[in-house]
């Protein structure tokens, strides 16, 4: 009995590829890639703004692993939808501010590329915040009503 359950359970690679195909998995992976590219651009020009990319990349990677391994269902004391929403919202705001500051400074080509990619990351994180907004995901059902012709 235990052997059949063990073989029917999905492995790590299957869980990874299954989560990879979801919208949230693609969003988190795209956020990791954007943060990495922006980090490289900031490192080429100046390291003053690179900490935002490092922190957001690490947080997105940790959340990717947590959601991929389905640990968010095993850790109930954290409200995952709200924490993910606030992470994405704060990242969008910080990337917007940082990108505007970088583009106003008028640095080299790598600084301009980092500013433009930061604006694109703002859109990506904003879409992630919109997609994960917990109150948007709740479905309301109609309340039961009494029949109009009286009690039955």
TrEMBL record:
Alphabetic keyword roster: Membrane, Transmembrane, Transmembrane helix
Main location: membrane
Molecular-function GO term, any one: chemokine binding
Any one GO CC term of the record: plasma membrane
Ranges where the MARVEL domain occurs: 19-137
Transmembrane intervals: 26-45, 51-73, 85-104, 110-130
UniProt keyword annotation of Transmembrane helix present: yes
Organism: Dipodomys ordii
Membrane topology: Multi-pass membrane protein
Subcellular location: Membrane
InterPro entries given in the database record: Marvel, MARVEL-CKLF_proteins
Protein name: Proteolipid protein 2
Biological role stated in the UniProt entry: May play a role in cell differentiation in the intestinal epithelium.
Source organism superkingdom: Eukaryota
């Amino acid at each position: 009995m235990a052997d059949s359950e063990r073989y029917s359970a999905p492995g790590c690679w299957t869980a990874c590829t299954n989560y990879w195909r979801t919208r949230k998995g693609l969003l988190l992976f795209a956020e990791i890639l954007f943060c990495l590219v922006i980090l490289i651009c900031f490192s080429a020009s100046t390291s003053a703004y690179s900490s935002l990319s490092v922190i957001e990349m690490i947080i997105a990677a940790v959340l990717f692993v947590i959601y991929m391994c389905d640990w968010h269902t095993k850790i109930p004391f954290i409200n995952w939808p709200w924490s993910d929403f606030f992470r994405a919202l704060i990242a969008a705001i910080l990337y917007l501010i940082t990108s505007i500051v970088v583009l106003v400074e008028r640095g080299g080509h790598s600084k301009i590329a980092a500013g433009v990619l930061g604006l694109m990351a703002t859109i990506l994180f904003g879409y992630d915040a919109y997609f994960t907004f917990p109150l948007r995901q709740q479905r309301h059902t109609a309340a039961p009503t009494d029949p109009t012709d009286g009690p039955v």
